[in-house]
UniProtKB/TrEMBL annotation:
Residues 184-459 form the Gfo/Idh/MocA-like oxidoreductase C-terminal domain. This is Gfo/Idh/MocA family oxidoreductase. Transmembrane segments: none annotated. InterPro entries: Gfo/Idh/MocA-like_OxRdtase_C, Gfo/Idh/MocA-like_OxRdtase_N, Gfo/Idh/MocA_Oxidoreductases, NAD(P)-bd_dom_sf.
């Protein structure tokens, strides 16, 4: 049996009983491969759901790639993107008519409603305004996280969505990742007994931190959003979701310790391309990361027919923030951040976001009275204290197989799959991350940042 057939054979529903060897074939002693199958409430579509994408960068491409592969489910009929290269690329991928291509989000809404939904994948500070306008015109929305930069704006979006009876699916994609779906299922089924506490780690990877939160679009919290929301609202949300308990209090500590001018090594220069004497030994060298290793280069919009890709990127390093020294940026995002959360029923959780790791992929430990769960998104191990039997679960998802290193465990495409059905059926109940469900973790993030700045324990009021 080949791998894909085996995955289909071993598929299980979210509400299924805890896996046992008499239900699924074993991949080894007490080890099981699984994925999340289609929701039985799905219906065959008479025609694809139509959508307009606002923001055709990395996240817009992720959701757009789903539409490009599953044309019978969703069709992208418009795009708004000021970057000409990205606008052209997106329009070509989806065969978008010229009349439905726009430079700004405002232009989209000068036209009468011409699609079922809007996908908002703009920078964080450009979520609120287009979302409110789309809701006013009656569009359903797939909204990239964070919902908006302030708690008031988040609540405004929630209120207008309710008033106009529109679906707003927040891209808390970890809720759709098979790894976390299984974790939630096991907890709900009593696999660990009463949950007592949770430890959750988000290791960003030191080069990812340098790329996105020192040099990149999210380097300044005042221009975008604090890192607890820009990066880690996924994590606050997934802790709350798997526990299925309301949060009560939160405290936080953290700061920017390393990426500062005073830590710049002797011999370093304003740019890695300026003859920096320590560039070859620096772990944050832009030349090593982007040119030598060819990592995270989508930000450079390299033309498909570029004759010398490395030379093209090398020139970009001379003019963009991505070529600047990490010790000489205008960054203010903390490079380490810890929170402690009190949930209902005396359940506690600790969350740690760490920049200085050699690896990525969330690590989670759920500790209960009758067992525990330990996992790193590639596997989830359940230990039953009563028998000391260990069972290993190995999650699988289609977009993880196609796009290695997505970091979301397959949740990206599984979210879009549910969103299509929710819009087609006008049934937000097919989603687990509607704005109603997702707003609490945003409030947790705002309160965490307030706690970090004021050194106070904050109450979470919904």
């Amino acid at each position: 049996m080949n791998r894909r057939k085996l995955i289909k054979t071993l598929s299980l529903g979210v509400g299924a009983s805890i896996i046992s060897t008499d239900v699924l074939a074993s991949l080894g002693e007490h080890s099981f491969l699984y994925q999340v199958p289609e929701n039985p409430l799905y219906k065959a579509l008479d025609k694809p759901v139509t959508a307009i994408t606002i923001g055709a960068g990395n996240r817009g491409m992720v959701y757009g790639n789903y539409a490009a592969k599953f044309k019978e489910q969703i069709k992208i009929v418009g795009v708004a993107e000021p970057n000409t290269f990205r606008n052209d690329r997106y329009a070509k991928l989806h065969n978008i008519e010229d009349k439905n291509r726009f430079n700004t989000w405002e232009e989209v809404f000068k036209r009468p409603k011409f699609a079922d939904a809007i996908i908002i994948s703009t920078p964080d500070n450009l979520h609120y305004a287009p979302c409110m306008k789309a809701l006013a015109m009656g569009y359903d929305i797939l909204l990239e996280k964070p919902i908006a930069p302030t708690e008031k704006e988040c609540r405004d979006i929630l209120a207008l969505a309710k008033k106009n009876k529109c679906i707003v699916a927040v891209c808390h994609v970890l809720r759709y990742a098979p790894y976390f779906v299984k974790m939630k299922e096991l907890i709900a089924k009593g696999a660990v007994g009463e949950v007592v506490s949770v430890q959750h780690l988000e290791p960003i990877d030191h080069t990812h931190m340098a790329h996105s939160y020192v040099r990149g679009n999210w380097h300044n919290s005042k221009e975008t959003t604090p890192i607890i929301l820009a990066k880690s609202c996924h994590d606050l949300d997934i802790i709350k979701w798997v526990l299925n308990k309301p949060s009560k209090k939160i405290s936080a500590m953290g700061d920017l310790k390393w990426f500062k001018k005073q830590n710049a090594p002797e011999g370093s220069t304003a740019r890695c391309t300026d003859g920096c004497k320590i560039e070859r030994e620096c772990p944050y060298s832009a030349i090593k990361e982007y040119v030598d290793l060819n990592k995270r280069t989508s930000v450079f919009d390299v033309p498909p027919g570029a004759k010398d890709r490395k030379a093209f990127i090398g020139e970009k390093l001379k003019t963009t923030n991505y070529g600047r020294c990490v010790y000489r940026m205008e960054n203010d995002q903390p490079d380490h951040y810890i929170t402690n959360i009190q949930f209902a029923d005396s359940v506690t959780a600790s969350f740690s976001m760490e920049a200085f790791t050699s690896y990525g992929g969330r690590r989670t430990r759920v500790m209960g009275a009758m067992g525990d769960l330990v996992g790193d998104m590639t596997e989830l191990v359940h230990t039953d204290f009563r028998t000391m039997k260990q069972t290993k679960f190995l999650p699988q998802a289609e977009d993880v197989e196609e796009y290695k290193g997505s970091g979301h465990g397959g949740g990206d495409w599984l979210l879009v799959r549910d969103f299509v059905q929710a819009v087609a059926q006008k049934n937000p109940g097919l989603l687990t991350s509607t704005i109603d469900e997702s707003i609490e973790s945003h409030v947790m993030g705002f309160m965490a940042e307030e706690s970090r700045k004021t050194n106070k324990v904050m109450e979470i009021k919904m």
